[in-house]
Amino acid sequence: MKRKIILTKDGSTTIHLEDWNEQYHSTNGAIQEAMHVFIKTGLQHTKNTFNPDQIHILEIGFGTGLNAFVTYLEAKKHNFHINYHGVEAYPVASAEITQLNYTQELKAENERDTFEQMHACEWGKETILADNFKLTKRQQFFSEINDQEQFNLIYFDAFGARVQPELWSVEIFKKMYEALQKNGVLVTYAAKGSVRRAMQEVGFNVERLPGPPGKREMLRATKIN
Ligand SMILES: C[S@@+](CC[C@H](N)C(=O)[O-])C[C@H]1O[C@@H](n2cnc3c(N)ncnc32)[C@H](O)[C@@H]1O
To answer: What angle do helix axes 170-179 and 193-201 make, rounded to 10 degrees?
Structure first.
């Protein structure tokens, strides 16, 4: 598939897939979307509401590493302890990684080495990036996920249902539900009715919340039992 690096409206980069006319992030702002959907509505909510000693995060679609990197920065700022698992079937090429401007746009140039290490570290192996941050990248298909009650928080960041409807299905959300501990939370940028209903069908309590810039709503799903 043809790929190119493009600028989004907040000045941060993303990857555009020409054949699908789809991006790795919102064209309204990649960093703004990551901060709103995953950090504010996911990570901060989990910390403020449940205050676990360690937050175990599962990311659906490690991609460019932007979500992992902003989570690392947030953890460093507040001394959160994070165990981060990023699942990805098609790792981004290093020639693309070098064209991403996240360290500059996040004013975190002093963390450039960490961002690079996130990509260079071995797949399938836990890497300690800081005293309070462990990263395990898992090269697998989402359909192969079989974790049981491991995670407090899931960043569900698959490509949209328009291009990959099979990833927004009851079958996948059942896997997500099983992977979460009690009171575990899943956040996603999507707000479609069919997605919300698939989440409810597997047992999630689903909230419709304000979305990031350019998007009216997003979803947050909680495992209550
Ligand atoms: C929207 S992008 C993820 C963006 C990422 N969170 C970031 O911050 O850059 C979706 C990701 O899912 C991956 N992907 C697509 N289909 C997949 C599948 N069936 N199993 C595992 N990964 C898949 C893609 O390669 C892509 O990296």
So the answer is: 50
Residue nearest to atom 27 of ligand 1 (CA): 63
Cα–ligand 1 centroid distance for 224 (angstroms) = 27
Burial of 135-147, coded b for 16+ CB within 10 Å and e otherwise, reads: bbbbeeebeebeb
Q: How many A from CA of 25 to the centre of ligand 1?
A: 10
pTM of the predicted structure, to 2 decimals: 0.98
Element (H, E) at 30: helix 30-33
> What's the average pLDDT block by block, 10 residues per block, for the chain (225 residues)?
96 98 98 98 97 97 98 97 98 97 98 98 98 98 98 98 98 98 98 98 98 96 92
